Amino acid sequence: MSDRFEIEESLRTSFCCGSCCSVCFVAFMLFISIGLFLKPPSGFDPAMLPLLLIIIWPIVIAFVIWVIFLLRGTTKTRIFLISNQEIKIFVPTKRPFQIQWSEFDNIEVKKRRTHSVVLDTITVYYTLIFEGQGEREFTIESGKDFKTKTVKKILKNLEDFSYKMNKRYFGP
């Protein structure tokens, strides 16, 4: 086993996909809005057009704001480092985390799933709890903070280093 494990990655692909989908959605809504102005469908009351646009465009704007919030920090590099001295975690949207091996006795990893009914998605969170003189923790959102495959590598290396450094590891 080496004396160091380091992961550096960005989620640039997620940013590109999210941006492209947003641009396509806004372009589609713009196309529909212009089409309704130029040639309303038969049987459509033109007096309803402003009301329809007042409903559509706030939804489009809310969608764009939501996507911007969702994609913030995805192009920036995130780092997870384990060495014989310390553990460092840097995720752009969170406070940097650093802890020395001498500051704790055990690592407990708690896994929590949440289900979004609106988007029908499941998000998995891993809370790393470092117990010793005090208790410190860091939560990783799988797929957003680090890729899901990367989180599995992180947890495996964290477990391996814990045994090497004579610390107890309680995994999910």
Mean pLDDT: 82
* Low-pLDDT stretches: none
Q: How is the largest sheet built, in terms of strand order?
A: 1-2-3-4
The helix fraction, in percent, is 25-40%
Count of alpha and pi helical runs: 3
Say what the CATH topology of the largest domain is.
PH-domain like
Task: Give the count of structural domains.
Answer: 2
Largest sheet: 4 strands, antiparallel
The shape is elongated
Q: Which CATH class of the largest domain applies here?
A: Mainly Beta
What oligomeric state do these chains adopt? Answer: single chain
Strand content: 25-35%
Structural class by helix and strand composition: alpha+beta
Distance from N terminus to C terminus (CA atoms, Å) equals 23 Å
What is the β-strand count? 8
Radius of gyration: 23 Å
Please write the string of helix (H) and strand (E) elements. Answer: EHHEEEEEEHE
What is the architecture of the largest domain at the second tier of CATH?
Answer: Roll
Q: Descriptors for this entry?
A:
single chain, 172 residues, alpha+beta, PH-domain like, 2 domains, four-stranded antiparallel beta sheet, elongated
What does this structure look like?
The chain folds into two domains: 100 residues, PH-domain like, CATH 2.30.29; 60 residues. Helices cover 39% and strands 33% of the residues. It has three helices and eight strands. The strands form two sheets. It has a four-stranded antiparallel β-sheet with strand order 1-2-3-4, covered by helices on one side. Strands 7-6-5-8 form a four-stranded mixed β-sheet, with helices on one face. Strand 2 and strand 3 form a beta hairpin.
